Amino acid sequence: MSTSTNGHGVLSASRPTEVAKLDRVVIRFAGDSGDGMQLTGDRFTSEAAAFGNDLATLPNFPAEIRAPQGTIPGVSSFQVHFADYDILTPGDRPDVLVVMNPAALKANLRDVPAGGTIIVNTDEFSKRNLTKVGYATDPLEDESLSAFQVHRVAMSTLTQGALEGTGLGKKDAERCKNMFALGLLSWMYHRPTEGTEAFLREKFAKKPDIAEANILAFRAGWNYGETTESFVTTYEVAPAKLDKGTYRQITGNTALAYGIIAAGQRAGLPVLLGTYPITPASDILHELSKHKNFGVLTFQAEDEIAGIGAALGASYGGALGVTSTSGPGVALKSETIGLGVMLELPLVVIDVQRGGPSTGLPTKTEQADLLQAMFGRNSESPLPVIAPQSPGDCFAAAMEAVRIALTYRTPVIVLSDGANANGSEPWLIPDATQLPDLSVTFASQPNATDGSGEFWPYMRDPETLAREWAVPGTPGLEHRIGGLEKQDGKGNISYDPDNHDHMVRLRQAKVDGIDVPDLEIDDPSGEARVLALGWGSTFGPIGAAARRVRKLGMPIAQAHLRHLNPFPKNLGEVLARYDRVVVPEMNLGQLAWLLRAKYLKDVHSYTKVAGLPFKAEELQHVFTDIIEGALTR
Questions:
Q1: Whole-Å CA distances, 395 to 294, 331, 389, 404
Q2: CATH architecture designation of domain 18-237
Q3: Which of the 8 DSSP states describes residue 137?
Q4: Buried b / exposed e along 472-486 (16+ C-beta atoms within 10 A)
Q5: Is 0.70 topped by the overall pTM?
Q6: CATH no., domain 248-428
Q7: 314-335 pLDDT per residue, tens
């Protein structure tokens, strides 16, 4: 049966099939951690992005380097939600679940809605594998899957058959079954194919036999969909109508890295990332290490403390110092962060939050570091805290963090999380010439007010309260800084109680006075009595739930905080405007605690610490219950 490609690089079907047009689809690929589900999902996502769909993704993988094969703890999955309109989340439940073994089926079946499609690699449903995950009988043979549309596909066998004659051994050939699955799904949803084939040839350029084997498996999956009688319907999801411009698919960690690079360029400063690898922040190091041509130096230190020490040292030397970590690393870095507060030097600390405490859930998401970011240092050590709301927004958040750090001479903590870091979405590439000017002026001459001709390091800008930044070695600007309390202005070591009181209040006033935008409210009807307020990666689920509530005819307002310290100046007025304020968080209510303490507002805290993002469906129920309660008051 012959095939050809259309203008989108999609293999054109010659067997007539029914084509159903959809506005959105959620697909989840699941299998053993060695089955290549992350690569499969990423490739499907890339082709959806190239086609022009809006999309959001949720990778989910085990923390163990290699969990026992075929077990539930070893299941890895990748969920992609793509649509012909603006979407906010990776989707609550998969419309299509592709499972490579019994463990993947058992771990994910509860999320599939009745009537959903399940595509099963039957080759792995042996008695041994079924027993390993607690199946007494084969779910493909009993009636336990009767509520779903189940397609049984012998992916391993078909892949091996397609690769006969390539010279690959049986084991190596079977490893290509994920590309068979990708080909099948690409056929079902009319996805472009040329990009994946080009990617495989580039990825395995040094092993062309492996590249061609994966391409053959990919084509075999596509052809299986085309020729089998099992699939009588294919599906089309049209491109989304996005703002004009050039887009690329981007993850939160990559966006943070690009934001740091762009900020360094706009500031005219070299960048040093001093860091230590830690999940889920390591990809920031990996990405920044590729961009030495932009004046970026990456230093993988021996531990977390050494990493931030190098970053702070770079700032002392006149560069932009950055360090990246997760919650456990922030704890180790806290003393040096406090030193940065005392030195009043710019420093960007990126915390990609994960489940805890201690080692906790390294590959799962959480928002439980807010209070640590606010108060996790000795004494009064105020610093700004900001949080990106989506993977693409991580770029802007990084730029904003650098702006604040340079303008106000202070460490800044960026609170990303695993959902933002590993998730992806289309990102409108900005015009570099339109990015904000972050250039700084270093001290160039003595500034003492007593006529001594000395340089006083703690002389301040009257508006920002930022001290002058002098590059060490500048003639005539010799000065002393360090961890001991400083005399205001001169910078000499001081144990004077009145001076210490003055300096503590001065450092707090500097942070309190940071210029941040007012909080914007999304309240289409203007009649809402309930406000849903969030921060960080809860933006998508809150927004999607608010859309659902409004479709039910119930008004609700939504607002999202980027700046967590200091809060926007109009936040108190916004909170007072609504009868009820609900704050969904992936912690035990840390932002709610801060709001109650500062504004004496009895906010409603809705919390979840499951290592997974909120679902729009669950927040919809929370919001409707609260709105109905407000209406009956």
A1: 16, 25, 11, 15
A2: 3-Layer(aba) Sandwich (3.40)
A3: S
A4: eeeeebebebeeebb
A5: yes
A6: 3.40.50.970
A7: 999 999 999 999 999 999 999 9
